[in-house]
Hints:
The protein is of the alpha/beta class.
Amino acid sequence: MQPATEILTPDANGIARAADLLRAGKLVAFPTETVYGLGGIATRPDAVASIYAAKGRPSFNPLIAHVADLDTARRIAHFSDMAEALAAAFWPGPMTLVLPLREGHGLAPGVTAGLETVALRIPAAPVAQRVLERVGQPVAAPSANPSGRISPTRAEHVIAGLSGRIAAVLDGGACPVGVESTIVATDPAPRILRAGGLSAEAIGAALGLDLAAGPVIEDSTPTAPGQLTSHYAPSKPVRLNATAALDGEVWLGFGPVAEGQHTLSQSRDLAEAAANLFDMLHSLDDGPHTGIAVAPIPDTGLGAAINDRLQRAAAPRPRGGTPEAG
Ligand code: TXA
Ligand code: MG
C-alpha cells in the first residue's frame, strides 16, 4: 500500500516537492485551467503504467502528454501548418492537439497506447506551467478521477477519488474553465474529437473554417479510443432536458432559480456553467437525493462541451453500474 497522499500548497516548496516526486516516477495530481490532471513522467514506462493502475483505466485509452513549451511539443510530434496555426492561436490553453508522432519522441509507449499519433497540450494554469518547467520533461496526465467518474475541478475531488493511490496533490483551488480541453486532430482534415473548454466556433474562426456547423465526431474507432459513451458518470441517475424535478430528484437549473435551489449559472452564462458543472455534479451526487434533473442547456459555444459531458453522465451504465472509460 502507498503512504497517504500528500496535499501540497502551490508555493515554491510545493512545486519543488511535486517535481521531485514526478522525477522519481511517482504520481502527482495538479491543477490545470480545465480540470486536475493525474501527472506521471511521460518518458518512464513505470510511471505511465501506474497512472493506468491508479485510475483503473483501460490500457487502450491513451493519455495526453503535457509540455511546457512549443519547442518541446515540436520535438515529440510533427506540426502541419494548420497545427502551427492552432498552437499559435490557443496555446497555452484548453486545447489538445492530436498529431503524428516523431521518430525518437522519447515517450513511454503506454502514453499513446501504441498509436502513431500523440495528444499534446500546453496548459495555461500557472501552477501547471511551473510544474512542467521544473520537471523539464513531458508529463502524461489524464483527468485525476477514477476511470469513468466525474473529472475533478478541486483538490478535494481528487482526494475523494484517489487518496492513498497517488503520492501527492497540488491544491491550486478550483479550475477556472471546469471542463476538459477540446481535442483537435488536424490530419488529414481538421476535426474535433472531443468538445471541451475551447469552443468549436473559436477554433473554426482561427482556421477560417465552419467547424461548429458539424457534429462533434463520436469516434468509436481506435483513433479516439477514449470516447466511450458512458463516462463522466455520477453514481446517481441523471435526467436531461428536464422541466422540473420529479419526486426525490434534485434540480440543477440553468438561469435564475429560487433561493436554496441549484443553478449552473444565474445569468445563463455558458462559461460560468462549464466552470460549475463538475463541482455541482460532485456535490449533488453526494447529497440525499435519488437522482439529478438537469435543465436544457443551449448547444452553442461551451454549451457543446457541457451537453457532451451531461449526455455521458446520463448514458446507460454498463452492467454492474460502473462506467468503463477514463
Ligand atoms: O483538459 C484535459 O484535457 C485534461 C487535463 C488534465 O489536461 N486531461 C484529460 O485527459 O481530459 P483524459 O485522459 O481524461 O482524456 C484524454 C482523451 C481521451 O479521451 C483519449 O482517448 C484521448 O484524449 N486521446 C489521447 N491520445 C489520443 C490520440 N492519439 N488520438 C485520439 N485521442 C487521443
Ligand atoms: Mg478523463
